[in-house]
Amino acid sequence: MFNFIKVAAACPEIKVADVEYNTSSIIDCMKKAHDEGAKLVVFPELSITGYTCGDLFFQQPLIDKGYRAIINILEAIKRLGLEDMVVAVGSPIVKNNILYNCAIIIKDDKILGVIPKSYIPNYSEFYEKRWFTEGINIKDEYVDILNYKNIPFGVDLIFSHNNIKLGFEICEDLWTPIPPSTYLALGGANIIGNLSASNEVVGKAEYRRELVKSQSGRCASAYIYSSCGVYESTTDVVFGGHMIIGENGTILKENKRFQRSSEIMTAIIDMDRINTERFKNTTFRDNVRQQSINLRTIPFEYKNLEIKNFDRKINPHPFIPAGEMERRERCEEILNIQAAGLMKRLVHTGIKKAVIGMSGGLDSTLAFLVILKAFDILGLPKENIIAITMPGFGTTKRTRSNVEVLCEEAGVSFREINITEACIQHFKDIGHSPEILDVTYENVQARERTQILMDIANKEGALLIGTGDLSELALGWCTYNGDHMSMYAVNTSIPKTLVRYLIKYAADEESSKNIKNVLYDILDTPVSPELLPSDKEGNITQKTEEIVGPYELHDFFLYYFMRQGISKEKIIFLAEKAFEGKYEREEIIRWLNIFIKRFFTQQFKRSCLPDGPKVGTVSLSPRGDWRMPSDASFNTWL
């Protein structure tokens, strides 16, 4: 379904060296994973025997029991109807009188392959080389497990079903400078499983989490990590049963460690997100060409990948971090990036003044805050910031008042230039009736304001700072050669949904009480260009989101359109999940159609954007992330 697959990490309750008990626990976990619709379940390292058997690994009865347990698992799959799920389980395997720590990959009634642990730790609390031999050089070999003959054996195995390609490594492999999963990913594996036995010491869980997160990002893959739990021997160390599922540099799921019973954890992997990243990332493609290891592809087939319970959390605001602390840190970083971009331009040009048009809206407020920050850091006087408000036919007292108070509190130079008479004269010049409230009526005001700002910037020897944001650029919701133009545009890659959080952060963390109050009122003001006359009570009548649609929807569409290049149908599906209970399907489709049409027809405005800093993963700069013909058809996307 839309190229998703549900996977699971499992941590069974075990008894050290009690193979029958452990096998029963593993099968119980398999049942639960199967019931939840998982198509892949990854167990911990040496989960059949237990990781902490020590010299018992030299005992033939333990090895024999481990072999028999693998067969019992195969038989249980058939007996209990657990087909169509790949199982990765850990057990010791002997070949040529050498003992290997292995991952056994099972599906239905077949052992698809056996992967030996590449790197055997033998430092600090680890003594694995006493029992096991590293498998890093084992390639293109086969092994027998009882009556199952010629099973592919080695670190060169990838298990493939269409665009789903599975690779596996074991514990220490991930902690090495070049993990085997790196080669597997370059060879095509896009889901990596790690069967692990990582003991707990202070601070290790955080490092382990970062390893999984970063490796999934470097490999542009999903990464399923399952470590053994509290029932391993505690003679010298303790295990916590840490389970983590990552995807392309993010953590999808993580369990609470030290659970006292068997546990499974599922997550839904978005294969489009992974494959699109690889498709677009030229560095990844270049790395693939350097791949020097010949990998074997083991085909298998899923009969049904339908997900009955779609429980993947879809963030309705993908440009905004969900956690409050992360959001605060992100806002601080973004404001610093914006200010750094502006400071470089000021220093390079030798200009010590800035001009900005202030409307009392979100975008000009954010740009104003960035200018203040840049001037603070550079030690330039605040009076060198020339803030200009230009009331017109639709300007309300509320926005006008907010601008005046904000500029007064900040200590900048403030000017008011009423554009009404100039616009009326221009209507006469071009033969347009001011009674016709059409696009000409609106754009005359926008271009008059830009002309004033540009000319004052020239007169003052100042830099005109643009205020338009990423969402407006995506929709083309800006006047060509009007507010579309500036000398440096600091908000050019900030989506509208994020603008609010940046202003709120600045209000809470970087502003005086009086400025904070003004910023909060600006946040409560409806988004509007104020180009149409206000009502009899002086309230805003022209509300942008009533015309083009909710910005939170458009930002959602933009994110998935740009980051994943997925179909319209999948975007609708994701939006339904993200905004469940808020927008009906018909409304989502309506605004998505508008987004697509406007995105294509308004490209010409983006083709000649002023310079501005990229701050996030999505940018529409024609010199950076997005090169698109201005006359491309949107029919394929509709």
TrEMBL record:
Which biological process annotations from GO are given for this protein?
NAD+ biosynthetic process
Query: Where does the CN hydrolase domain lie?
Result: 5-271
Q: Which reaction does this enzyme catalyse, per its entry?
A: deamido-NAD(+) + L-glutamine + ATP + H2O = L-glutamate + AMP + diphosphate + NAD(+) + H(+)
Binding positions for deamido-NAD(+) per the UniProt entry = 443, 472, 477-480, 605
Annotated residues that bind L-glutamine are located at 123, 198, 204
- List positions binding ATP: 357-364, 467
Broadest EC class? ligase
Which SUPFAM superfamilies does this UniProt record tie to the protein?
Adenine nucleotide alpha hydrolases-like (SSF52402), Carbon-nitrogen hydrolase (SSF56317)
Active site (record annotation): 45 (proton acceptor), 117 (for glutaminase activity), 171 (nucleophile)
EC assignment: the record states 6.3.5.1
Keyword list, A-Z: ATP-binding, Ligase, NAD, Nucleotide-binding
Query: Per the similarity annotation, which family is this?
Result: Belongs to the NAD synthetase family. In the C-terminal section; belongs to the NAD synthetase family.
Q: Which HAMAP family match?
A: NadE_glutamine_dep
Q: What is this protein called?
A: Glutamine-dependent NAD(+) synthetase
Please name the source species. Answer: Fonticella tunisiensis
Q: What is the lineage of its organism?
A: Bacteria, Bacillati, Bacillota, Clostridia, Eubacteriales
